[in-house]
Specification:
The complex is a heterodimer of chains A (290) and B (326).
Chain A (H helix, E strand, L loop, with lengths): L16 H39 L5 H5 L10 H32 L2 H16 L2 H16 L3 H26 L2 H9 L4 H12 L1 H17 L2 H5 L18 H9 L4 H26 L9
Helix pairs in contact in A: 1-12, 3-6, 3-9, 3-11, 4-6, 5-6, 6-9, 7-8, 9-12, 11-12
Chain B lengths: L2 H10 L2 H30 L8 H6 L3 E5 L5 E5 L2 H32 L2 H16 L2 H26 L20 H25 L3 H9 L4 H30 L2 H7 L17 H8 L5 H39 L1
Antiparallel strand pairs in B: 1-2
Helix pairs in contact in B: 2-12, 4-7, 4-9, 5-7, 6-7, 6-10, 7-9, 7-10, 8-9, 9-12, 10-11, 11-12
Classes of the chains: A mainly alpha (290), B mainly alpha (326).
Chain lengths: 290, 326
């Protein structure tokens, strides 16, 4: 009995040309994907390198502690201005954002929560220049070009960041925790504050830090509102300088000495942004602003 | 007075104030947003008698003055700025979308565990660099290099045949629309990557296993399962980044130049964008020009509002799809 051939069934497992092509495509595409990942972090290293090489030589204690009109010149007024305006802004934005996030997640009906979500999206998407335009038109007639106006412009930009993060982290708190607390007879508002929010505290702080980081990095709204000043003062009633504004204004000047101060200021700002983001990174809750 | 009821009352006495306070926060935030829109709209009203909304959006030219007698001579056209905003953002997204999505795929699917976390962190750091710092770097370092490399090369090859890619080799300009687009690409790539990463991570593991079980290669799994499943979410990521690019002010302002009178004939010449124009011209603007800048701001708001709405709809749809499959 002769063995019948098995048509169409391939018994040898060596690679056909088709398989070889598939393998090669696979190899190439994986390399392309890898390259894309590398390309996306290359700018970071380039920027880092340039900022340090151009900014570090001028960095000194007097640069940090002197005013712009002193010799040697410094940016203490810009550092103060950035910190003070961001501080006022976050003091206003954090309660609004956290309170709003709590309401949307703990009390609102599904429909209201969805509308709230949509509205946070819209507010997050508002370009920062529009916050500046708004603060200019609404507040400069009353408060003038001042630190207060700048702070309020920043508040508008910070509120949705805090609110979004708060809402997202509260959603991650297991319902069982709330139920256990309620079952013990703890009223809802106390449960929310002492159980739900305490559980999510590190996540809520993440939102606050992200908002601070956004406030420190904003330029456009401050250009229109707090403008700029050479005074070393923390009087919020007057125009105030900010680090970002110093960088922006010095960047386009022709005097290389002045451009150099822009780089040093950029170095300081970058380090602050880095510290804030590293501190966020090591929080337990992994959430994105989205 | 019996003790129990008063005890209950005291325990519950915080409930109402707490609700009112939290609801108040939501309403206050909403009021801020509404006030923003209303104020900018109100300030743009001064413009419309001079320049009808449709002409404003579709014409070029940026000029306005008020006589001592109070008569206003003005011609404001937003077209070059709208063009500049869209073209720079499109260049940005055309570069950032593939790189960002591929980087996200690498982070989720391919990177060794030990590499994935630090790499994700680095990508997020890029997103955290203040835009003015990127602008400073772009102005001082990137822009001249792009001009002397890619721009020069494209202009001297493709530019020979395609008019809008040409450049005067004797006088390359310091600023250009193309360079702003590349700067935007660098700024939004990490955003595309970060959001795409979340989307790709939520693709159910069983789908990957199914394809690998049938002998598919890694790339085939990515192409046939991951990308199609994550399609809607990835589109959302790209649109979100597009919205960010449209609103970006300072980095664009520093690299695009200040050409507000016309749409530049080639990509390698200076232009302007809505946000850059508002930031750049506001300081010395006359009242009527401030009205025109408010009009620009309003059109910018409408653009980003539309994008936000589309993204949210997509995300809801994508969440439903993923939910039903998982």
């Amino acid at each position: 009995m002769s063995q019948a051939p098995l048509p169409n069934v391939r018994l040898d497992f060596s690679l056909t040309p088709h398989d070889i092509r598939r393998r090669r495509t696979n190899q190439i595409m994986l390399r392309v994907i890898q390259a894309a990942a590398i390309v996306s972090v290359v700018p970071l290293f380039t920027i880092l390198f340039v900022i340090f090489s151009k900014g570090l030589p001028q960095l000194s204690l007097s640069f940090l502690l002197n005013g712009p009109l002193e010799q040697p010149t410094g940016i203490v007024n810009a550092i103060q201005g950035s910190l003070v305006m961001t501080f006022i802004a976050i003091v206003a934005a954090a309660p609004i954002g956290i309170g709003g996030g709590i309401y949307l997640n703990e009390y609102a009906s599904t429909r209201i929560a969805r509308i709230g979500e949509l509205f946070i999206d819209i507010m997050l998407g508002v370009p920062s220049i529009l916050a500046g335009l708004f603060a200019y038109f609404a507040l400069v007639p009353i408060l003038g070009h001042s630190g207060w106006t700048g702070s309020i412009a920043l508040t508008v930009l910070m509120v949705p960041v805090v609110m979004r993060t708060t809402q997202e982290v509260l959603r991650l708190v297991p319902a069982g925790l709330r139920e256990a607390s309620l079952a013990l007879g703890v009223p809802r508002w106390k449960t929310t504050i002492f159980v739900t929010c305490r559980t999510a505290l590190s996540g809520i702080m993440t939102g606050v830090i992200l908002a601070i980081s956004r406030g420190l990095g904003e330029t456009a709204p401050l250009l229109l509102t707090s403008q700029t000043s050479n005074d070393v003062s923390i009087n919020l009633g007057q125009p105030m300088n900010a680090m970002t504004v110093v960088i922006y204004q010095n960047a386009t000047r022709s005097d290389p000495q002045i451009v150099a101060t822009a780089w040093t200021t950029a170095l300081i700002l970058f380090v602050i942004a880095l510290i804030l983001n590293v501190s966020v990174r090591f929080k337990t809750v992994n959430n994105r602003v989205f | 007075m019996p003790e129990a009821p008063s005890f209950r009352r005291s325990r519950l006495s915080g409930e109402l104030p707490f609700r009112v306070l939290t609801l108040g926060s939501v309403l206050l935030a909403a009021a801020l947003l509404f006030a923003l829109v209303v104020v900018i709209f109100e300030k743009s009203l001064i413009l419309w008698p001079v320049e009808a909304p449709l002409t404003f959006l579709t014409s070029s030219g940026w000029f306005g003055s008020t006589d001592p007698s109070g008569a206003i001579t003005a011609a404001f056209g937003a077209l070059p700025m709208i063009w500049g905003t869209l073209v720079t953002s499109l260049i940005g997204i055309a570069v950032a979308a593939p790189i960002g999505i591929f980087a996200a795929i690498y982070l989720v699917e391919l990177a060794p565990k030990r590499l994935a976390a630090p790499l994700t962190f680095l990508v997020e750091i890029v997103a955290a660099i203040p835009s003015v710092v990127i602008g400073l770097w772009a102005l001082g370092e990137l822009s001249p290099r792009l001009r002397d490399s890619i721009e020069w090369w494209v202009a001297s090859t493709l530019g020979q045949f395609i008019p809008w890619l040409s450049e005067d080799p004797q006088q390359p300009s310091d600023t250009s629309v193309f360079r702003s687009g590349i700067v935007l690409a660098i700024m939004i790539t990490p955003m595309v990557a970060a959001v795409s990463r979340e989307v790709i991570r939520s693709v159910p593991q069983s789908l990957r296993e199914g394809l690998v079980g049938m002998g598919a290669t890694k790339w085939e799994t990515i192409r046939l399962v991951i990308l199609p499943t994550a399609r809607v979410g990835l589109l959302g990521a790209v649109l979100l980044a597009f919205g960010r690019a449209i609103g970006e002010t300072i980095a664009v302002r520093l690299t695009i130049g200040m050409n507000i009178s016309e749409i530049p004939p080639t990509l390698f010449q200076p232009g302007s964008s809505i946000a850059a124009q508002i930031a750049g011209a506001f300081g010395e603007a006359s009242p009527i020009e401030k009205g025109a800048l408010a009009g620009l701001g309003l059109s910018l708001f409408i653009l980003t509002l539309t994008l936000s709405l589309i993204v949210r709809l997509l995300m809801w749809r994508s969440a439903n799809r993923m939910g039903s499959r998982a």
